[in-house]
Specification:
The chain has two domains: 7-103, Beta Barrel (Elongation Factor Tu (Ef-tu), domain 3); 115-241, Nucleotide-binding domain of ferredoxin-NADP reductase (FNR) module (Rossmann fold). It contains five helices and twelve strands. It has helices at 83-90, 126-133, 158-165, 189-198, 215-227; strands at residues 7-18, 23-31, 41-46, 56-61, 72-77, 96-103, 115-121, 143-149, 169-173, 184-186, 207-214, 235-241. The mean pLDDT is 96. The structure holds flavin-adenine dinucleotide. Residues 41, 58-61, 74-77, 79, 82-86, 122-123, 126, 238, 240-241, 243 line the site of flavin-adenine dinucleotide.
Length: 243
């Protein structure tokens, strides 16, 4: 997969939308324009937020398809007290951040004869949304997403991804609601995945796995997959944070 060298960009915020109470979608106009491959991220400078007033850097997956460029979208979970996420969420339309992009190798690389399973917790959905929204995405019919959040109120991009994948877009709600809706299951994505596997819905040796979000989810699933004979080369991961 060809990726381009990272360039320094100033990205002006042109639109801001709350997707849930703590996840915000941000649309930017970059200067200069840059190209990226769906799944890559941008590294953003957080001025003066580090120890002794030093600058920090934070990474954010580009949540939109390159087809929609030159503007790009981020999907940011606002972490209480977190300097990076609050810097972005507090920005007003018209303001700009400085960053470098694109970075990363977490891009779609599955051969045409293989199935695909995406696992995301929270904003870990962002790179998968970018991949699937790309007109050239070759694998809608062969893909499943397991999307883990706490409650139904934490779900975003539901309509868009259900439209693309139908009932292969599965939402796992870890704080069980009393009544489940279509496409939802109670519990964690690992449990839903294991149940689907037991029902013969997954062809383990014929599938590539992409995991993004919490390190704990990624470690658990990766261990499970490898214990069940999945080759390391079929597992791709982007860890957002350790817990
Ligand atoms: C390659 C890469 C891509 C990333 N893409 C995204 C993205 O598209 N959207 C996004 O929201 N975050 C993303 N992150 C996480 C992001 O870089 C920051 O770590 C996050 O925004 C918290 O930074 P902060 O400065 O606000 O808080 P910090 O003080 O740095 O973090 C506080 C704590 O928040 C928790 N945390 C961090 N990220 C998350 C999260 N996404 N959800 C829940 N808890 C979290 C961790 O426990 C962390 O220790 C990505 C991380 C990496 C490495």
């Amino acid at each position: 997969m060809m990726t381009t060298k990272a360039v320094t960009v100033a990205a002006k915020l042109i639109q801001k939308t709350s997707l849930t109470t703590d996840v915000t979608e941000l649309v930017y106009q970059p200067e200069p324009q840059f190209s990226w491959v769906a799944g890559q991220f941008i590294s953003i400078l957080i001025p003066g937020a580090g120890p002794g007033g030093r600058d920090l850097r934070r990474a954010y997956s580009i949540a939109s398809s390159p087809d929609l460029g030159p503007t790009f979208q981020l999907c940011v979970k606002i972490v209480p007290g977190g300097p990076g996420s609050n810097y972005l969420a507090d920005m007003a339309v018209g303001q700009a951040f400085s960053g470098m992009a694109p970075f990363g190798d977490f891009v779609f690389k599955t051969a045409q004869d293989r199935d695909v399973v995406f696992f995301a917790t929270g904003t870990g959905l962002a790179p998968f949304r970018a991949m699937i929204a790309s007109q050239s995405f070759p694998a809608c019919e062969r893909s499943r997403i397991y999307f883990g959040v706490r409650t139904r109120a934490d779900v975003f991009y539901r309509e868009e991804l259900s439209q693309a994948l139908g009932d292969r877009f599965q939402i796992a709600l870890s704080r069980e609601p009393s009544v489940l809706q279509a496409g939802e299951t109670a519990g964690r994505i690992t449990e839903k995945f294991k149940a689907d596997l037991a029902q013969g819905k997954i062809n383990l040796p014929g599938t590539d796995f992409y995991l993004c979000g919490s390190g704990a989810m990624i470690d658990e699933l990766k261990t499970f997959l490898m214990e069940n004979g999945v080759q390391k080369s079929a597992i791709h991961q982007e860890v957002y944070y350790k817990g």
